[in-house]
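Let's practice the habit of predicting before peeking. Look at the sequence and jot down your guess about where helices and strands might fall. Then scroll down.
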Amino acid sequence: MGQTAVEFKDVVKTYGKGDGMQVAVDHVSFTIEQGEFVVILGRSGAGKSTVLNMLGGMDKPTQGKVIVEGQEISGFSDKQLSSYRADTIGFIFQFYNLIAGLTAYENVALVKDIKKGALDPGEMLDKVGLSDQKNKFPSQMSGGQQQRISIARALAKNPKIILGDEPTGALDSETGLIVLEMLQKLSVQDGHTVILVTHNADIAKCANRVIHMRNGKIKSIKTNESPMSVRDIEW
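Done guessing? Here is the structure:
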């Protein structure tokens, strides 16, 4: 760690105009270092998913700068953002977003169409412990298995940054632990920058840094000098 991976500088995001204007993100500033496991914590409507969408290049700020790996992505064209999403970011969503008509292997292999030099799908399935499921379709797998397939797909891009939007939100607690443990390991052992959005304060205990949002603003930023292992937390 030590190098800055992400920087938000006085970022504002509004929707609508005039009397109908809503401020989703209200003058937010923070930095995230390479290899950190960061949790953006807050209730529904706090602005945390909007922050994640801007970081992921799916939305642009109304004002302010978003800088990732030294590049100001807030000034990118749509074409540049598309390349940025393909090359730099691995996404993990709450509801997996797997393609129903493709096997687990084929879902991960899709990444080869998006990114040159994508990693081997079989190796990525092995990394998430699901080599034995490679020929199954999503409907034949549990929610936890589907989420691990989506992690394998994100990893196949060999992304610098992994973004998770409530990645355990649709899972039972034991399955959620397995997925969280995997994400923590990606940061601690493999050096990926992992940024998760959640409303679950327990998950924050595992993070290097917790950015707590409320009503579109940052309420607090706390650093955990000794993040807990996922398994050591009383859930």
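How did you do? The two ends are 29 Å apart (CA to CA).
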